[in-house]
Structures
1.
Amino acid sequence: MEAHPISWSTEPEEELFLVRGARRGDREAFERLYRRHVGRIHALCRRMTADPQRSEDLTQEIFLRVWERLGSLREESRFIPWLRQLAVNMVLGERRTRGRYLARISPVDDLSGFPDRTETRRSETAPDLERAIAGLPEGARMVFLLHDVEGYRHEEIARMSGRSTGTCKAQLHRARKLLREVLKK
Amino acid sequence: MNCSEFKNKLDDFVDGYLSGGDHLEWERHLLRCSDCREEVDQLRSLIGDAARLPAEVAPARDLWPGIAARMKKRRSSPILATGFSWLSGGRLAAAAAAAFLVLLTVLVTTAVLRNRQETSVADRSPGGGDAFPTATRALADFWTAEKEFLRATEQLLTVMEQRKFELSPKMIVVVEENLQILNRAIVRAKSALERDPGNRELGQILTAMYRRKMDVLQKATRLPAYL
């Protein structure tokens, strides 16, 4: 499956139809939902973990959790924000469960799964930026991705991660500074 | 304003978090300082590139077969799965735990009362006390009831685990810390009670801690979803 920029929103009526079917236990409907959103969820996991294996495992866990928890979705029209929030929560939860581990400070060599220059349509600097993001210390990477890529505000990131707003801002500042230094070279 | 002050709030300025008055002051500095203008341009360029990263990145392989296989092992309907976890499993577990907690309280009181009565009778008898004190036998009943209580609370723990990813991270930390503190205290109280089975206060402390643990678990399973 080629990776190319696609808006997060999909055809709302068909989405609603699939969500309703999946809630009733229709596995085919759920598979179609999976195929619609796996690229987006995997992108989040891949960037947050900077680890291909962990990101695949997490992606699977997220969709299994979606299947189990669809019944708790209060408004079917809110499926996409619900899915997105669940995915972010699970990525952050997985990080906490794994406990302390060393922040990665060296660039990632394995860029498989990230589009190469010939496939990138909008940004020719994407692979360099992907590599640089993957090389960030984990806390800084997390805040950068949630704020600058996913669009969350500091207060939301603080609430989701259990950190203070001040810490999140400091991490974002650090991430941006490191990225600018790395990308200048 | 100097460049150092400007750079301290560079991120807030670019992200639009500064108040109106501060923002104007930062804008005025930019008009005078080319270095800071360059910093702003670089930062905006980075943020722009980040926002334009591909929205989707496909996994290297199709993950669906693995997901489908694991779905078969779980409940067939998401609506049923959600309803089951608290309405049947959670509520029954809570009721069972509550019932055994009452039994534990009764057993503690009975064990201590028997111990006092039989100790005072034994003291008056020519041969002294029983070789196997009554309190020890009553304590055996206590541990049996405790096993059933722990089984019921395990079910509550399972319900809580299932809900973990829809609760707020801060709440999860609070609940887990509370449970760790309670578990440590329970272990210490149990050891002390085993060494001193007739000690009423210890028995009461232990049942109080069990009650507190059950309370924490019940509340955690009933917390509104964060999502």
Note: The two ends of chain B are 43 Å apart (CA to CA).
2.
Amino acid sequence: MRNEVIPDQHHIARYIPYTRTRRHSETDEIIGILGSALQLKENEDYLSVSWIEFYVGDWQEQFQSAANGMASRQTIGPKGAIAWASVRDFHKICVSKQQRVRIIHLDDDALNPGHSAVRRMPRDDQDLLDLLASEAFQNFTKVCDLVLVKNTLNDHT
Amino acid sequence: MGSLVTTSGSQQGGHLMQLNGPEVFGVETRQILEYMRNGPSVVSVSREPLSKELQRSTDNMETVVFDALAYAKIKTSLVGMHLPKTWRQRLFDQLDKLHDTSDWEDGDQPVTRESFETFLRTVLTIRPPPRPSLGLTSSGNLLAAWTIESDRLTIEFLPAGRLRVIVSRTMDGQNQRAAMDTTSDMLIRVLAPYDPARWLENAK
């Protein structure tokens, strides 16, 4: 539902391009994400994420559906990752830095129906971005380990 | 065709190629320099048919990326005597991977000259550090990250020698964090409370 607040016990996911991943210096294996992966661009009013529990099924099915939704709307590079965070952890970290964000379902995209927004993200708090990247978005799956299927307008979730 | 390095730059690049072995200038860099000398016929690119507008846009981006990579590699080679060969090669490998546009988001830019110059200046100041993992912001600022267990040092290289530094370090069982804007000359001094040798072995 549009502007529905996503519950604390649920999770949000975001595509992380290779250029914004933290990697092992020798093996180049992804070991995390950089704060810049959560930085708002100049033309952005909110941080775009995907609501995992919007979709039906078990966790794997929900995560796959969220990934497919993202792939339907943006280029998902083969060397990147899809990271996810608990909404509770996200809020907790923001509050620890005296920031209060709103994580809401946008319900604005038939091809990416789980599309959601983190509103009131501070633009220039590098420490917060680093904390969110390293402590909220600790978990990720490499894109190369996923089989992504783009949605079409005839699909139902 | 974009702002490619001038003829004198390509001559300089050719001279540098003669001075350095193929492990420094790989196949792609040689292609870049040949392209600068001889034009697009040397570089073959295969792609599926695109609309003319998209084709022009794609061509422009390829040129911009080539230009950025060539500048970075040539600039590095000018100070190559101060950097171990394997360090330089690893840097070039990472730069190549960062500039694979199939992994880019819409609006991403290649590394800017100003950011790369700050990166090089910093590396030479701390002479050189253990190899970081490199990243790139959407606006083309280079990022370097050192991670040892839960301790992290991340630096964004801005124009004119400026740095944006984020450090997270566990000391005496407590997590110490800081975000600061500084310069390459001041980096070691501002990191002193966090024991920069943790990440930068040669830091003084």
Note: Chain A has a mean pLDDT of 93.
